[in-house]
Amino acid sequence: MTTETDAGALRKRVRGWMMFDFASQPYNTLLLTFIFGPYFATVVGDPVAAQSMWGFAIGFAGLAIALLAPVLGALADASGRHLGWIWFFSGLYILGAAALWWAVPDADGVTLILVAFCLGLIGMEFATIFTNAMLPTLGPRDEIGRISGSGWALGYVGGVIALVIMLLLFAENASGVTLLGQPPLFGLDPETREGTRFVGPFTAIWYAVFMIPFFLWVRPVRRAAVQGIPLGRALRALGDTLRRLPETPGFTAYLGASMFYRDALNGLYTFGGIYAVGVLGWSVIDVGVFGILAAVTGAIFAWIGGRLDRARGPKPVIVGCVLALLLATVAVVTVSPTSVLGLPVAEGSSLPTTAFYVIGAVIGAAGGSLQASSRTMLVRQANPDRITEGFGLYALAGKATAFLAPFLIGWVTLASGSQQLGILPIAGLFIGGLILLLWVKPEGEAAWSARPSSV
C-alpha cells in the first residue's frame, strides 16, 4: 500500500527528474541551434564553409557517442550506478559549454572551438541516456507517456526562457545592441562579440544551477550491485542483447526507424539557423526569435503529445510527427528571398521570412512531440531488466547514422554550392524512418519475458 509520504516522495522524484530536461535543453536551444551555431558561421566567415565544418564536427561527435553508448549503458545496468555517470558527464557538459567563450570572431583556433563544443555535446548526450533510463521507475506504464511529454515540455520552457534572456540582455546584433536596443549586460564588449560569446558560460551556469533539484530529489534506479566496474559482465550482457535482436523484430525495426527520423530531425535543428543566416540573411537575433517560436510550439505540443500518448500509445504520435516533419523539410527547400513553395515573390517581400517562421513552428511542434513519445516507445520496446542498455542502444541508433545527415549535408552543400540543395538528404531519412515504423509493435516485444537472460 502506497502511503501519502511515499506518494509525495514519488512526486518530488518525478519533478526532480523533469528538471534535467529544463537544465539541459539550452545546450540544444542556445548552442546547437539558435545562438552559437549561427554565430559560428560568422567566426569562420564563409557560410558554406561554416556549414560544412559544423556538419563534419557534429558527425564525428555522433560517431563517438554511437560507439560508446551501448557499452556505458550495459555498464550502468550491471553495476546499478547511474548518478555517478550523470555527475561525470554533467562535468563534460559544463566544461565544453563554458569554453565557447573563447570563440572570438575570425579566430585562428576554430578546431579547438569545435572540440570544446563537441565535448559538451557528448556530455549532454550521455547524461541524457542515464536520466532517460530512470523513466520506467517514475510511475505505472500508462503514465510514462504523460510524464515524458511533460518533462520534454518543461525542457522547452527552459530553452525559451534561456533564449529570451540571451536575446534581451546579451546577444548583440550588427549594431552592437541586444533585442532591447541596449549594449550587452555587464559591460561585455560588442566589438569582440562578448555578448554573444557569453552564451557558452551562460549555458554552463544554467545547467549547474537547475540540476540541483535533480541531484537532491532523484535517487539511483537501484542500489549498486557491485563495488567495481563490471566491464566483462556488461559486455556479455550487451552481446546477449545483440544476439537476441533477430528474435525481437519490432524492437529492431524501432531502433532502425528512430535512427533515421531522429538523425533527420537533428539535421533540421542543427542546420536550420545556419540555413536562415546564409539563405535569408538573418541576424543572430532574427534566428533567436525564430527559435523562441519553435520552442514555444514544441513545449505546447510535447505536452499535448504526452496526453495523446497516454490515450492512444506512442506509435500514432510518432508516425504523425514524422509525416509533418517530412512535409516541413520539403517546404524549407522552397524558401528563398525570391520564392516560396516554388512560386516567385516580389523583391523585398516579407513572405519568405513569414513562411520560414511558420515552417519553424511546425518543426518545433512535431519535434517536441516526436522526441517525448520516442523515449516512451523505447520503454515499451526494450528489455525491462536492461533498460539503460536499451537507452544505450537507442542512443547508438540515434548516433550510428548521426554522422550521416551532417556529412551528407556538408558534402551536398560543398558540391552544389547551395545551402538549399544541401538540406535535401533530410527528407530521405524521414522516409526511411516511416517505412521501418511499419514493423514496430505498439505494445513492445513479448520475447523479452518469454526467454530468460543468459547473463
Structure characterization notes:
Helix 1 (4-34) packs antiparallel against helix 8 (199-210), helix 1 runs antiparallel to helix 12 and helix 13 runs antiparallel to helix 18 (425-437). The chain is mainly alpha-helical and 455 residues long. 73% of the residues lie in helices and 1% in strands. The chain has 19 helices and two strands. The chain is globular, with a radius of gyration of 21 Å.
Question: Which terms summarize this structure?
Answer:
disordered C terminus, 2 strands, two-stranded antiparallel sheet, single chain, 1% strand, mainly alpha, 455 residues
Strand and helix layout:
Elements: H1 4-34, H2 36-44, H3 47-79, H4 83-98, H5 110-132, H6 144-169, H7 194-197, H8 199-210, H9 212-217, H10 231-243, H11 249-280, H12 284-312, H13 314-333, E1 339-340, E2 343-344, H14 351-381, H15 387-400, H16 404-416, H17 419-422, H18 425-437, H19 447-450
Antiparallel strand pairs: 1-2
Shape: globular
Spatial gap, N to C terminus: 33 Å
Helix/strand order, N-terminal first: HHHHHHHHHHHHHEEHHHHHH
Structural class: mainly alpha
Radius of gyration (CA) equals 21 Å
> Uncertain runs with pLDDT below 50, 5 residues or more?
223-227, 450-455
Instruction: Output the strand order for the largest sheet.
Output: 1-2
Q: What's the total count of β strands?
A: 2
Annotation field: number of helices:
19
Q: Roughly what is the average pLDDT, rounded to an integer?
A: 82
Task: Characterize the main sheet.
Answer: 2 strands, antiparallel
